[in-house]
Design goal:
With about 325 residues, the protein is α+β, with helices and mostly antiparallel strands. It folds into two domains: about 90 residues; about 180 residues, BirA Bifunctional Protein, domain 2, CATH 3.30.930. It contains 13 helices and eight strands. Helix 7 crosses helix 8 and helix 10 packs across helix 12. The longest helix is centred in the last third of the chain and has 23 residues.
């Protein structure tokens, strides 16, 4: 049951106080106001068959096990014609803002071959582009990576190989959270000038698996202690976690019974973590106890938890802006 899953930043806010169901409803309303189009949602059948990277998405990570390093990639597709002519430069200035460097200095943009990317020149190149991709790459153990620039370049080289075209991108490393992460802005153009269309399944899973492969090569497989500590942190994390996915797989008609837990989860430590997660979700109003049997999960559980995680990112960003 403790199979590998890569989701969630390393955030550990306190549990919400007061009426939990009302809290979840408020968070979902706020998260729905977020602009842009997320590409991390599961692919529809129609969308999954379009774009580059389909084969790579199916092949990447096949040799993985639960000890692979965890990486989160959040992706957003921006329609530049709707966003406006200053959308790119505004975003670039934002990710280079004061306070995101290792010692609180401004961020510094870099590219495939330079440590000092010309943001103005990049903005000029994208003026006629139809769209662009904006990624946030967060490796769980990024503090152990000595050179994030090198890591990002290696990752984008693998992405180029998967997509079969040279890519034009700039990136900025951020050190203003508990775990360093990287913002990448990728042009929506192929090397031949045509629009770059990436398969949704590659953005949703393939690219993350490539990053996880790379992180595992750089840092080595996770130890059993690291895995256990990561799972323990997820018990009270107010967002969508690997524990929730395990519960989702266990559930039959949305119900997780004590019998299912004992029969399908042989590891008593992991079983206890799942029970603790169910109890935490009950406090949020997302599960209810079925006397003598187990728990009934709300149909909206996944959507609610993902909205909570998104809202936490929004609130954190707004808080930093108010401090400036």
């Amino acid at each position: 049951m403790s199979r590998r899953d890569e989701d969630g930043f390393e955030i550990r806010p306190a549990a919400p106080q007061g009426r939990h169901q009302r809290f979840v409803s408020q968070v979902m309303r706020e998260a729905s106001k977020a602009s842009g189009r997320s590409l991390n949602r599961p692919a529809s059948r129609a969308g999954a068959s379009l774009g580059r990277g389909q084969v790579a998405a199916r092949v990447a990570g096949k040799a993985f096990d639960r000890k692979a390093r965890r990486v989160v990639i959040k992706a957003r597709l921006v329609n530049l014609r709707k966003a406006g002519s200053r959308s790119t430069i505004t975003h670039l200035r934002y990710i280079e803002r004061e306070g995101v460097g290792p010692d609180g200095e401004p961020g510094k943009a870099y590219g495939p071959t330079t440590d000092d990317a010309d943001m103005g020149a990049f903005d000029e190149r994208v003026r006629d582009d139809r769209h662009q991709f904006r990624f946030i790459v967060s490796t769980q153990d990024a503090v152990q990576i000595e050179d994030l620039k090198h890591f990002t370049r290696d990752l984008m080289t693998r992405v180029e190989a998967d997509l079969g075209t040279q890519l034009d991108w700039v990136a900025v490393d951020h050190w203003d959270t508990d775990n360093p992460h990287t913002h990448i802005v990728l042009r929506g153009r192929q090397a031949d000038g045509h629009d770059l269309v990436i398969a949704r399944e590659y953005i949703g899973t393939g690219m993350r698996q490539r990053a996880s492969e790379l992180a595992t090569e750089w840092l080595g497989p996770r130890t059993e202690l690291e895995i256990l500590q990561s799972q323990q942190r997820e018990v009270q994390r107010p967002g969508w976690t690997a524990l929730d996915r395990s519960l989702q797989r266990l559930a039959k008609d949305g119900q997780v019974t004590l019998r299912q837990l004992h029969e399908q989860c042989r590891d008593p430590r992991y079983r206890n973590l799942l029970v603790g997660r169910l109890q935490y979700l009950e406090g949020m109003g997302l599960t209810t106890t079925v006397v003598g049997r187990g728990w009934q999960m709300q149909p909206s559980l996944e959507k609610a938890l993902k909205s909570v995680g998104m809202a936490k990112d929004i609130v954190r960003t707004k808080s930093r802006e108010l401090e400036v």
